[in-house]
Amino acid sequence: MTASYGSWPSPFTAAQIAQAAPRIDGARFVGEEIWWGESVPAEGGRVTVRSSAGIEVLPAPWNARSRVHEYGGGAWTADADGALFFVHGADQRVYRMARDGAPEPLTAAGAAYGGLRVQHGRLLAVREDLRPEQHLRAIVEIPVDGSAAEDEAAVTTFMATSGFVAHPALSPDGAHLAWVQWSTLHMPWEHALLHVARIGTDQMLPITTRSALQPEWAGPQELLYLDDLPDGRWNLQRLRLHPHDSERPPTREQVAPADADTGGGLWVLGQRWYQPLADGRVVAVRTNGRDEIVLVGTDGRVELLTLPITAGASVDDAHGARVLISGAGATVGAGLWCIDLDHGTVTTISGGDEADPAWVPRARTLTFDGPHGIVHAFDYPPTNPDVAAPAGELPPYIVMVHGGPTAHVSGAASTAYAYWTSRGIGVLDVNYGGSTGYGRDYRERLNGQWGVVDVDDVIAAARGLADAGRADPARIAIRGGSAGGWTVLSALVRGGTFAAGISRYGVADLRMLAAETHDFEARYLDGLVGPLPEAEDVYIARSPLTHVDRIDVPVLLEQGSEDRVVPPSQSEAIRDALAARAVPHEYVLYEGEGHGFRAAETIISSLETELRFLGRVFGFDPQL
After folding, report:
1. Which end of the chain is more exposed for a tag (fewer CB within 10 A), N or C?
2. Which tens digits make up the pLDDT trace of 188-199?
3. d(C-alpha 482, C-alpha 503), whole Å
């Protein structure tokens, strides 16, 4: 069959995409079972907990979702006896649910909790006080007997700060607590400290770090953690304490350093880039564009594990020689796997379906020459075994721009992208300067240059693809959400490359963002653009809203009504400005959605709206 690109019939419907790959949200060994968190798009994106025994541990309407630091994470954990501890999304209280029991509150209202960890029989958490006059974050221990449900004073506070904290880790002997902390002036990938304190004293150990992540105790006096000192790559570090010599500072050494990152942007609590095993070995993620999983021996030797996971990897838990890893791969969809290192077996626990290469394209790793250096990207070409395009026709493409902007894509097999590629629309996923996964130098290209480097890089990638004869230069669209939406609008202002834009809850005005956004990102713009009021002229000059008169191509704006990160006022300002100039545009407001679309009906509507929009702009008849 011959048909023009964009009009190819496809077996991938928007409804199938909405249900295809539930998001895995942490995993734990619980007795003989494996438990994992999983989103349920058909229930508004509720996060449930499932068991390998074939049961749903956390029934509706309970929802394991934290709002600490706005993005949450670490909203559930469990003990070895099968008691589930979770943060309920509706009230942010912590609950305990015994096997075959009902949820019972462990904390009072008025605070949000996240980063839950059961360590040595004790339940630790990050707490965010929601009262405006006492907006502090703290590392706490929550009693599991329910005594704090009515009396918040029963919660033990180890430390509190007006800044931000993550990754509480209690030493095996209960003598020391380690955690990561950063101030309101920085984002954690810019500057975050590792703190180690002796519990019950004011003693803090002197430790020098730059962007610390994930402390884990390997023994009473041995702490593992991640940092990008000295070479700009997050690598595993070992800290040895000397408790019998108070004058001797802890000694530090790198563990099997590599030109790759074991670590990433600390957007959510609960992310795990490695797990120490009881015998001293370590299983870790290493990222250099794509992810790989390695086993670091006690002698420092590194063994690459043969696994299908190459994207979004999280080493969620370890027990004996068994390890739980979630993620996705170049040939498999998102899933959860159990690796038995002693027996050399890999068992799929959830998801991880093999992608049919006849329908789901394998991402090609590409680089392009940009004005600021190499630009990294992944190309998903149009792929459909039943259809061919007319001779000489070049395909339309969507340039995808990830959010953050300190984030990363890794070229995973994606039915969400197959929705486009199976219809004859290519996808180019760009890791522009500022992305993680390529070291600090690449990440810091965006310092002071947001709206410049990111835009230059996506334009360089789009033009490079067209110059190579792989895309129709007259039919390239750009799509992104949040910070990616900013780059979409900024690129449209620049003009000359993209024939259409899709902005999902995108930033349009920097001063408005600085005034309205939540406090986790309140000073993010200081590094990306400059501090206010000194850099106000730059804020005005860079904002797409300032130059909306330069946008002369159709724009689709999509927004969640409950978005507290990028409020609807941003998209609505662009909508009003486009309407005043009669520029073709659409604005879709999804009631009840926040920063990112979770409900199945929203995902379906969004995909179908985008496809119809591109069909009108590029002149093809889309097959929904």
Report:
1. N
2. 999 999 999 999
3. 8
Lowest mean pLDDT among 111-120, 241-250, 540-549: 241-250
Closest-CA residue to 166 (of 178, 177, 180, 182): 180
Contact 476, 463 (CB under 8 A): no
- Both tokens of residue 166? 């993550």
Give the model's confidence band at 295: pLDDT under 50 very low, under 70 low, under 90 confident, else very high.
Answer: very high
Distance (Å, rounded) from C-alpha 465 to C-alpha 567? 34
Three-state secondary-structure class, residue 256 = coil
Q: Which residues pair with 47 in a beta bridge?
A: 39
Torsional class of 106: left (φ above 0), alpha (ψ -120 to 50), beta (otherwise):
alpha
3 state SS of 348: strand
User: 336: number of CA atoms within 13 Å, CB side?
Assistant: 22
Query: Is the confidence at residue 110, as pLDDT, over 80?
Result: yes
Phi, psi values for residue 542, rounded to 5°: -85, -25
Residue in this structure with the two tokens 């509190």, named with its chain if needed:
160
How far is it, in rounded angstroms, from Cα 554 to Cα 575? Answer: 11
The residue length of the chain stands at: 624
Q: What is the pTM of this model?
A: 0.94
Instruction: Find out whether 560 and 531 touch, Cβ atoms under 8 Å.
Output: no
Q: How many CA atoms lie within 13 A of 606 on its CB side?
A: 26
Q: How many helices (H) and strands (E) does the chain have?
A: 10, 34
End-to-end CA, the chain? 18
Tell me if 408 sits within 8 A of 310, measured CB to CB. no
In this model, does residue 244 exceed pLDDT 80? no
Averaged pLDDT score across all residues of the chain? 95
DSSP class per residue in 540-563:
HHH-GGGGGGG--S-EEEEEETT-
